[in-house]
Input
Amino acid sequence: MKKAAIIIINGILLYSCNSKEEVNPIKKDIKELIFASGQIEWDNSYNLTAQTDGVLLSADFEVGDVVQKGGIIAKIDNELNAVNLETSQKQIAITNENISLNSPALIQVEQNIQLAESKYLQDKKQAERYERLNKQNIGSRVEYENAQLNAKSALINLTNLKKQYAVILQQAKQQHIATNSQLKSNTIIKKYNSIEITENGTIIKKLKSNGDYIRKGEVIAVIADAKKTEAVLNIDENSIDKIKKGQPDINKLNSNKKKVYTGRI
Output
């Protein structure tokens, strides 16, 4: 047995001496992995909010859809806004007529002015005739004074009618301005029934779906520039010193753990 043991040991030594494999040391940095959780943030992100109350319709957009400024991606069912706009349109038609030459109120006053002008001219001539007679001591003093009084009264009536015409026209213009302002306001409010994209971007969150009742100010979706994203990570304080600017990092999202995103600190 001693001889057998010696033979085995000699065989191992002989194999070791004849092996050509060599092991050489390599100078290389040791890599250490640091795990950190966090969330994705986007540049130029904004909330797409509802500007009126109602039921959300035609909200067929999805996360990841690219949207353009001015595009309509959903609608809100609010019939009251449409009714108010229709009422304002009818009212503005009435006020337009009231400030025109065909206004019934203005036509009536204009006719009264024409009659008043005719009466004033007639009374004025009568007053002038009695004034000439009075200078010649012809006729009674009472008739002369009555003629003068009638002419003055006719002039006052004519002046008042012209002022009345101006007041009615001014009131009609003021009503037209107020109604036109209300029309513009209701036109804008009616547009709130359509959800319009305010800036180009990509939908990164969808918070409301078809059939949801939403109130004014509620967020329907979040839109951002998907080309400019960053992962904001929470690093343990014991590992802070190991993080340097420019280091590579590997990211995975909970929504798709099979895909790997590479980036830099």
